[in-house]
Predict the 3D structure of the following.
Amino acid sequence: MDAPTPLWIVRFAWLTLPFLAWAGPAAALDGASAASTVTFATVGWLLWAMVLVCSALVRPESLVLLRLLVPLAPAATAIGLLLAAGDGILVAGDTATILAVVGFVTGVVAAALIMLPSVGRYFLNGDSYGAERRYGLRCPGALVVTIGPLWLAGVGLPVGAVAALAAGRWALGIPALLIGILFAAWLWAVTRRLAQRYVVFVPAGLTLVDPLALADPVLFARNRTLSVAPAATNPAGPDPDGAPASERVDLSGGALGLAVELRTDGPTEVITLSRPSDRTHGDNPPGSLSDRLQNVRMGVPRETSAVLFTPSRPAEFLLDARRVGFGQG
């Protein structure tokens, strides 16, 4: 699978950023101590090299790091520009200001392109087997709202803490760094799971992998799948086994975009991750420590003849399903 054009643009943009974007932070550091300048330069070059390496290593983990670190470039450039302009170090029209603005725009373009579904699919297939074709799933709706603040706490806060430490503000830098590390671990756990969500065509049918919603991957056999189509156009009414359409399992997580509905000729067991209302508490009172420990990542078996999920590129997924003859009844 060839690298998509947006990824090549990101790689080229990232190679030029040290000559463009650094003008903003460098101006903001004018007059700072040598320790602060060296610390910023060291951290900046380490992050730049890490992104460059990750852009060449085609793995889902590389995609996670790229999407977390690339937005740092325009953010750092914008902050540097604002600080330098406020101190009167940069003025409109001079060479340093123009370079910093061009670097900011370049960073924004790189950050936008790295989020494209085509780039995500390329990295997602980096550790696929043989002729597998994986399609990523869209981010659940709730995470779309929370991932931005979590990025600020998990990426921005540690970087700001390092800046405070470099400036000798230990009372501020140490607590911020400790809190930032905790948020960074949380952010990594969430985004890594997002990169592990996909559907893949296999010889036996289609496998749905979603560690945020499913306890185990689910295989939908080719010879038992009646249809796979946009949810809005799939026929309503009872399932083939008599179950009402309202009992279908929604694995889309409220994601934005077109949902796809897969229907089978009979009940298929889907083990979703437990919810408090689904748990059996036994002799332990609900919410007790022993009850929570007993039900950690508990799977809830559910029988269904229809599931909903949201591929990041639904049109290409549906065309591929037709090409391989999946869901043709």
